[in-house]
Amino acid sequence: MLSWEQMPATDQSHRRCDDSERSPDWLRQRAWVEIDRSALAANIRQIKTRLSPQTALMAVVKADAYGHGAITVSQTVLEAGAEWLGVATLPEGIELRKAGISAPILILGATYTPEQVRALVHWKLQPTICTPKQALVFAEVLTEFEESLPVHLKIDTGMSRLGTPWQEAIEFVRMVAGLSQFKIASVYSHFATADDRDSTVMNQQNDRFKRVLSQIADAGISIPRLHIANSAATLADSNLHYDMVRVGLAVYGLYPAEHLRGAIDLRPVLQVKARVTQVKTIPTGTGVSYGYKFIADRPTRIAIVGIGYADGVPRNLSDRLKVILRDRLVPQIGAITMDQLILDVSTIPDVEVGEVVTLLGTQGNQHIWADDWATTLGTISWEILCGFKHRLPRIVQ
Ligand SMILES: *Cc1c(COP(=O)(O)O)cnc(C)c1O
């Protein structure tokens, strides 16, 4: 155990240090996230069983690796066989370089200021170029440097987000190919509906991508790497793999759609646990938590748990959440508050302070994963996972 003087000032201050410096006992005091590195590695190996040897695997680790911790995740997936990392922002890329990660890193989001260009060069990070105008800004700044910068050209084939529209793509690619400041590392696009069971739109986007690729070939420009598939497209159709796939959600062990469940064998990586902090019995008619959304219709044994919406448990799950306690599902009652929530433990009246409750994860025969919460809430599991990147200490196993 650490002495009181050494204890971190905030729950997550350990994230800036080496996890091993902190005692897991300290981190497990109130509520915490557990990250299973062996599940991560197993997911990478599973995904690779779907890829031909010529197809590289980019693990997408944006948003602090979907709330799992970007540095730990990056190190683990690279050891397990991923070749590339994808992040959304420049600071996310710099964080990985500062941690000593040397694998190629693509910034999937847009960078466009001269300061960002200099930082990209300095940290050997590879940008996405989305428009001819952005290319010109980059080219101007790059005259300060001797080496050409590897860049990835983004074509909009129907997502209507970043990228040059596919109808204008050939002029864009020609222009960048003509600038000596650049080395085109890849041409890529992104699907809007890859998780739909109906693949019509996805196939249309892929057809547009192929049309651009044949125009590029006709222009005599050779591109070392082409890619378009996210997790859903990677699992759905091997014709979409090209030279690389960009996989996020599946790396973390969740299926991007119900109909893709079981396409490969994935194991969820993140579990969320918290401790009971008080237990008591309330009489019939007693209101529970803010707004009295729950009023006891019988004497009710309740347990208070030290985790709330500021930790990543969405407040909209109030009165709809179930947690695992002693291998049993137990209902949460009343409003979820910022730092605490309340359970009806009438079925387990001898629950004690300090017992561990599993909010996301598995215990005995029970399991609850981010997709279960997402279904209840009418959102997607990606958003649930990202909710855990802020406050809770993370225990890496
Ligand atoms: C986030 C992202 C991905 C990964 O998506 P998943 O559905 O999580 O696999 C791939 N490509 C781009 C451009 C992205 O922004």
Gyration radius over CA: 24 Å
Label the CATH architecture of the largest domain.
Alpha-Beta Barrel
Tally the structural domains. Answer: 2
The low-pLDDT segments are 10-14
CATH topology of the largest domain: TIM Barrel
Question: How many helical stretches?
Answer: 12
Number of DSSP-assigned strands:
20
Q: Average pLDDT value?
A: 94
Q: Approximately how much helix is present in the residues? A: 25-40%
Can you tell me the overall shape?
A: elongated
Q: What does this protein structure show overall?
A:
The protein has two domains: 37-254, Alanine racemase (TIM Barrel); 270-396, Lyase, Ornithine Decarboxylase, Chain A, domain 1 (Beta Barrel), CATH 2.40.37. 28% of the residues lie in helices and 25% in strands. The protein has helices at 24-27, 37-49, 62-67, 70-80, 90-98, 114-123, 132-142, 169-177, 200-218, 231-236, 370-377, 381-386, and strands at residues 31-35, 56-60, 84-87, 105-110, 126-129, 149-156, 164-165, 182-188, 226-229, 244-247, 270-282, 287-288, 294-295, 300-305, 322-325, 328-333, 341-344, 356-363, 366-368, 394-396. Helix 2 (37-49) packs across helix 4 (70-80) and helix 5 (90-98) runs parallel beside helix 6 (114-123). The chain is elongated and about 80 Å long. Bound molecules: pyridoxal-5'-phosphate. Residues 60, 62, 108, 190, 230-232, 246-249, 256 line the site of pyridoxal-5'-phosphate.
